Amino acid sequence: MTRFRISIATVLLSLLGGVVAQDANATRCQADLTPAGAPPNNTKVLILGGGMAGVIAARTLHEQAKPVFGGRMAQTTFGVNGSQYVLEKGPNWVHGTQTGSGAANPVWLLAQKHNLSMVESDLFTNMSFFDYNGPNDYSTAFDASLAAFNNAIVLPGERWQQNKTDLDLRSTYNYMGVAPKTPQEQACEYYQVDYDASQTSILAAAWNYNYTFDPEAGGFSDVDMLCVDQRGFACIVQAEAATFLNMSQVLFKQIVKTTQYNQNGVTVQTTNGHNLTADHPLVTFSAGVLQSTDVVFDPVLPAWKREAISSIEMPVYTKIFLQFEKKFWFDTGVGLYADQQKGRYPIWESLDLPDVFPGSGIIFVTVTGDYANYLEQLNKNITQVQLEVMEVLRRMYPDAPDPIDIWLPMWGRDPLFRGSYSNWGASFVPEHAYNLSVPVNGHLWFAGEATSVKYFGFLHGAYLEGQNAANNIAACIKNPQRCPPTT
Length: 487
Prior knowledge:
487 residues; alpha/beta; FAD/NAD(P)-binding domain; Polyamine Oxidase, Chain A, domain 2; seven-stranded mixed sheet; 20% strand; disordered N terminus; EC 1.4.3.-; oxidoreductase activity; flavoprotein; oxidoreductase; Flavin_amine_oxidase
């Protein structure tokens, strides 16, 4: 029976998992996760990265043979003394659960296994509407935008069968004669896709949506579950790692400097001077890190791999958290704001809800695209951020007081991630998505949410890609004839 020695180098992960609340359950997430032993070396498999894809890949191999895990599943403790809460800097939701006995979202199953506290979010009907003049019920326009999106994601299948090129979502709306014209309609369109429609492939968006939310297309369900667990969302990764991982297999707080590879294996060099060798390293870095020059591959990756990496986008998705003495805003879960400048602090979500964090006085606003990049340039100039955010909130509520606390992450500037999650722009070429996950030289493997054709950008995409890569590595070790070609 073939046995594997597995090492997990949590590369570029000095703050993995963020802050974990010190409650009765907090230690259960990190049980037996105290680093011990000498750095792993001369291994059969070396996994680079400790997020969802990395941990699930390690677990899958184990089943066949910063000092906490989590990756972009990161938390922060937010709020003034006496009113603090563990909030999610990154993923908040399990998107899609299970319909009857149909396909189940593996992250949903993992959350249930580790007793993660969640509440269902109604992100499309439990809403309030505002614009630059204050409250304004444009729910009819919102319903029309929902219908436009649902009609738009049918079109790619027809075009695909006819061998027609991909379109961006904005072009699709123009083609259908339903392009938004007013600020209110533009805000509704923005809400459907998170980013500017001109930056979103309609083909990729259709696959992404249907395979997650539409059970008839093989998806899970249209249910969104919000994590409210004060151990943090990353607890499910940490707790899962604790079920199988020997910490002598882990090297924390290292930054990969160079990855040298050839047909015989790979040597990974860290900035702290470690040289780690392996037959089969699995790279689970984000697409943003792969696109940067932070990690040098020697020799350079082949042109087909570099083209695939360059083709996907790694935009920034920024949540700005604000805490007030008491709640004064809408009782719905979401407030949509339409500004004369599209994308200007548009999506407001309340956490001061009976089944979330009642009495917390916390609300957050999400920005993406150009506005998120602008905030990155401000480099956490909290005074300026607060001025701009409060200008919008006071258009919604003129008597809104100043917040007592404010905080936001910087995903784009963070060398651990270089962005929030992946997104395919038009014209999307499925071959690029396939090539993202294809191993290089028969030894250098890749996995992560970005390598998923169906589930890019989703946490379950990272889970399934890590699992799939690990199964392929295991098959290769057991039977060399099943190894990929040396390309």
